[in-house]
Amino acid sequence: MRSSLLTTIALCLTILAQGQSKLEKELQEKFWNKPGNDIAAISIPKKWNEESAVILKDHRYIQYINNGKVVYFKSNKHQMIKIQDQASLEGFSEISLSKDSKISFGWTTTSRKETTIGIRIIKPDGAITLVDIEKEEVIEDDIRKIAIPNLEIGDIIDLFIQTDRKERDYDGLDIYPAVETTIKDNYPILDYRIAVEVENDFFLNMNTYNGAPPVKEEETERRATKMYVVEAQNVEKLETSRWYYPLVEEPSVKLQVAFARKKINENAAEIFKGEDGERKATATQKDVLDYFDRKFNKTYSGSAKEVISHIKNGKFKTKSAKLKAGLEYIRFNRYTRFFEPIFAYQAQIVAGNTRNKCSSLYYGIYEKDAQVINDLRAISEAFNIDYDIVLAQPRYDGKLDDLLIKSNARVGIRFNTEEPLYFFDFNENMTLERFPAILEGAEAYIGSVIKKKKISSVKRTILSTSTAADNVYKETIDLSLSDDKKGFNMKRDLSASGHFESEYMFSWIHWSDFIKEDYSIYKDQEHFYECGSKKEIKRYTEQFNALESKKLEEFRERREKSTDREWSAATVKDYTTQVVQTGRYGNNSPLVVTENMTLKDGYIKKAGSNLIIELGKFIGSQVELEKKERERSVDVYLGFAKTFIYEINLEIPEGYTVKGVDALNTSIDNTTGNFITTAVMEENILRVKTTKTYKSNYLKSEQWKDMTPWLDAAFEFNQAKVLLQKG
Q1: Are β-strands 252-260 and 279-280 bridged in parallel, bridged antiparallel, or unpaired?
Q2: Of 347, 257, 241, nearest to 638 (Cα)?
Q3: Which of 126, 219, 654, 695 has its CB surrounded by the most CB atoms within 10 Å?
């Protein structure tokens, strides 16, 4: 197992190949000034003697300095890892780095020459060997791999990485990517430290959570800078679990830095702003109200006029129907219809510049959620629909009280209709009937809006959650044995509703399927290839139809390969697929596709004249809990409440009878979920139905004991077989 921190660094950095003597000298002066004997003698607590590895030191430092029109960044990481068994020896014997990586410690780098890396090995007797990076490095498939030669159990890897960069400031405003990390790693840590040094004109949001040591301030060598530090000792390793949010459960650090040269830049900064050079530790309700005021102060109705006209011309009686019609119109006319010219441009069917009279058919209007929110607000005001602005933090980022990084905040709109409707995400499947699963059950700020005026107040609420009945994945499988009794002919109907719909949209259907449906609804809208001269129209139509046919065939081939991987114990042949329903219109209508295929040489075995059918495999793979998972101390964070239904109809060949049907019936049901199966014979058809339900998206750790029985039952059924007895 490789350290997650080390892996993250390895994936994020590029190497400056320097002369070893120069590099060694620089590192010796700055960081490698401790004798090898002293490092080898570092004492490790007895409780960690059986750990695969121990991180003796994990120190990180980030500095932001402003000098006139140039902003300077410096970051270094010093990590020492003691190898204690064969698993960690194998894991650390090679370090992989992305060849063209351009991200480094929270800012974008553009030159490989700005990052240096040094690695040395300390033996148990204190002897030191410096790794010759240039010699040990190889490049395979754009991955830089550095071998750590002669590494042995008991050795200590001493890794140092530093990035120095300067950036010309042009607009006076930069928001640097946030750092959000647990203090814990895959291995226990003896000494942990992260330090951030910022100068005036920089804004720092930084705090610790879930029992992590508090942020403290340290003196610096520069009068114009301040240093903020988090330190911890004897940190236990991160015990990762299934269905688990580390930033919610584990001691963690969050920080983000922004640079704003002038007051006007500060007002435009997408951060919860504190004072220059001072650490801001919390985002208050006042910060949220200020954010709402600046972002949603006024509605601009100009871009919504066409949508409002469409609604007025339609026969939409309820407020909900008007809002849904408006969003569906926006979804197609301002976004998905432009998929066609985008693919045509990528295929070089059309050039980047189009005739002015055709330009509206080539370029979408919306780029951001805020633009759609603005038009939905305009629609609401036009039809006197009450609405509020909503700000929530995804469940995996922690509690609302822990909100600190503005980019984590998800902003949407709640329409106070008969049944509340929501809008958060701008995409090809956007709907008002559900919002992102990561926000379900989350705390949120609600900004009450007075019609055509600013937000008047902010209060807190809990967002609703969908039910297991709202999110259903279903397969209906009709099976008959092939003539040679070595495989199956299979017809499979796949259905996905609720959150499953967006999950499977692009793996089950091609984009042209829902585009055609959209055009069948908005019949008066032109395709891009229907505009231009007669010659252009003829050429573009023919070329695009050919492109579409090609892409559809490529999609079918990918789908067949994906299905073949799904049925790993057999070979898929004669595959066809057909879209029955896209699920993009109507009240929670599901996505439905039908597949036909043959499964050759799998899931059936001969036992003399009898046949053994691995019927349980037709409900898909199931969770197999390891022994260490039986006990759980952290809460259970599921994506969303959900139901899986499999209906398997197996045609029994003439001359055979089924044995073992009764064993297929089981029922385990409690407050956390269930696994229920029924099996009956109807003439020559064995009909088996399984239902697996996750009743909630969140469970307390003490409820885990109620969840494991039906998870185990589902796994056991996955191994179930039936006997077809000859005669």
Answers
A1: unpaired
A2: 241
A3: 695
Per-residue pLDDT at 404: 95
For residues 295 and 270, give the distance between their C-alpha atoms in angstroms, rounded to a whole number.
10
Distance CA(372)–CA(334), nearest Å, equals: 10
- Supply the pLDDT for residue 369: 81
Residues 490, 496, 500: CA angle, nearest 5 degrees: 130
Give the C-alpha separation, 41 to 53, whole Å: 16
Query: 721 is written with which tokens?
Result: 């077989």
Query: Which structure tokens are listed for 315?
Result: 């026969």
Question: For residue range 187-243, what is the model confidence (pLDDT) as tens digits?
Answer: 999 999 999 999 887 889 999 999 999 999 999 988 889 999 999 999 999 987 899
Q: What is the arithmetic mean of pLDDT over 51-70?
A: 89
> What DSSP letter does each residue of 656-711 carry, written as one string?
EEEE--GGG-EEEE-SSEEEEEEEEEETTEEEEEEEEEE--SEE-GGGHHHHHHHH
Instruction: Give the orientation angle of helix 319-333 with respect to helix 369-382, to 10 degrees.
Output: 140
C-beta neighbour count of 722 within 10 angstroms: 22
Cα 440 to the chain's mean position, in Å?
A: 16
| DSSP one-letter code for 427 | S
Chain segment 260-270, per-residue pLDDT in tens: 777 666 666 77
Instruction: Tell me which residue has tokens 């503005």.
Output: 406
Whether the Cβ atoms of residue 505 and residue 592 lie closer than 8 Å to each other: no
Q: Quote the crossing angle between the two packed helices 511-521 and 319-333, to the nearest 10°.
A: 120
670's CB contacts (< 8 A; 6+ apart) are: 706, 709, 710
AA letter at 185: D
Tell if the pTM clears 0.85, that is, is over it. Answer: yes
- Whole-Å CA distances, 247 to 179, 337, 388: 12, 39, 29
β-strands 722-726, 656-659: how paired?
Answer: antiparallel
Helix (H, G, I), strand (E, B) or coil at 255: strand
User: For 386-414, how does the pLDDT look when each residue is reduced to its tens digit (9 = 90+)?
Assistant: 999 999 999 999 999 999 999 899 999 99
In the chain, the percentage of residues whose pLDDT exceeds 90 is 66
Spell out the SS3 assignment of 594-653.
EEEEEEECCCEEEECCEEEECHHHHHCCCCCCCHHHCCCCCCEECCCCEEEEEEEEEECC
Report the distance separating Cα 256 and Cα 665, nearest Å: 55
Confidence of residue 160 (pLDDT cuts 50, 70, 90): confident
Question: How many other C-beta atoms are found inside a 10 Å radius of the C-beta of residue 47?
Answer: 10
Query: C-alpha 553: how far from its chain's center?
Result: 29
User: How far is the CA of 652 from the CAs of 600, 678, 681, 687, in angstroms?
Assistant: 18, 17, 10, 11
